[in-house]
Design a protein that fits this description.
The chain is of the alpha/beta class. It has a single domain, classed as 3-Layer(aba) Sandwich (UDP-N-acetylmuramoyl-L-alanine:D-glutamate ligase), CATH 3.40.1190. It has 11 helices and 14 strands. The chain has an 8-stranded mixed beta sheet with strand order 4-1-9-10-11-12-13-14, with helices on both faces. A 4-stranded mixed beta sheet has the order 3-2-7-8. Helix 1 crosses helix 9 and helix 9 runs antiparallel to helix 10. The longest helix is centred in the middle third of the chain and has 17 residues.
Length: 316
């Protein structure tokens, strides 16, 4: 079975061929977009086994998504097809300055109706890490039940639970899911969040205060606080380490956080030092921004090893 098991929705994503309002676009490129499957792809590219669990519509977009993710070496054998609900869709809108906004068509999607027992206990039990995000439990009641079933199984069988709140206010609409998200954070062994999310959830960006809160009141063994172009801060119960940003030429930041998470978790799997885990995350996150797709820029083992060993590629 896989070293890392993920649970969450993935949509068919459409990116326009040029910047500007979508009302003027005539051609699009199709890709996949989903935080948990992005992480699984990143893990697979770095040489570790990953399984992605979800529900897809029994439609062409659903099969496109599974084919795409499976082609990256991710185990999709536990994906279920739903004949009654459609696969979710997402459209990107790109401004001339490179700013990206997204439009979701995922309400009542197949993934939002995934059954609470979609993830077999055996899959969680045999994994080293179970990972999900704050997107999944707010998609619907059954999704929330599925997440908590996985968390319970992970805790019972000694599997590390990794959680990224990944707050998407468009999905929250007029509801407040702060309590739900913080409850899952306090149950997580590995907490991966953005600095702005820390401020929203805990009313503070003071790292020592945040660390004390999560280590004292939660179950955290590792924490990574991501701050985009400013780098990150990684922590365990003994140390707080600032991580400098990795150099890059940013084209599209979507997918960078998932890339960071995937590499950070791979570092943990490899029993690397906390500093090395942070460096891996920063490098993967930076490289992810250099392409328009979520995962196309994610590093391979060879690329990551070159970065960690300070080696430069020779092109001529």
């Amino acid at each position: 079975m896989a070293e890392i098991v993920t649970l969450g929705e993935t949509m068919a994503s459409f990116s326009p061929s040029s910047p500007g309002p979508l009302r003027y676009m005539r051609s699009f490129e199709s890709r996949t977009a989903g935080a948990e499957s992005n992480l699984a792809v990143g893990v697979s590219k770095l040489g570790h086994s990953a399984s992605w669990i979800s529900a897809l519509g029994e439609d062409e977009f659903g099969h496109f998504i599974e084919n795409s993710i499976r082609s990256e070496g991710v185990d999709t054998s536990l994906v279920r097809y739903d004949p009654e609900h459609k696969t979710g869709l997402m459209f990107k809108q790109v401004k001339a300055a490179g700013e990206t906004s997204v439009f979701y068509y995922r309400e009542n999607s197949a993934a939002s109706h995934m059954p609470k027992d979609i993830a077999p206990v055996s899959a969680i039990q045999s994994a080293s890490i179970f990972h999900t995000t704050g997107i999944t439990p707010i998609l619907g009641e059954s999704c929330r039940e599925a997440v908590y079933a996985c968390v319970f199984a992970a805790q019972k069988h000694g599997t590390l639970f990794s959680f990224d709140p990944n707050i998407r206010k468009k999905l929250w609409k007029n509801r407040d899911y702060t309590h739900l998200i913080t409850d899952l954070i306090f149950q997580a062994d590995i907490v991966l969040l953005g600095l702005s999310e820390a401020k929203m959830l805990f009313s503070s960006t003071e790292i020592p205060r945040l660390a004390d809160n999560l280590f004292t009141n939660g179950k955290a063994k590792y924490i990574a606080v991501k701050d985009g172009k400013n780098g990150a801060i990684v922590m365990d119960q003994n140390q707080i380490i600032p991580i400098s940003p990795h150099p890059c030429c940013c084209i599209d930041p979507i997918g960078a956080g998932d890339a960071f998470n995937s590499a950070f978790l791979c570092g943990i799997l490899e029993s690397r030092t906390l500093s090395e885990c942070g460096l891996m995350g920063a490098a993967a996150g930076a490289l992810a921004t250099e392409t328009y797709g979520d995962t196309e820029g994610y590093p391979t083992c060879a690329v990551m090893n070159s970065i960690l060993n300070n080696k430069s590629d020779i092109f001529r």
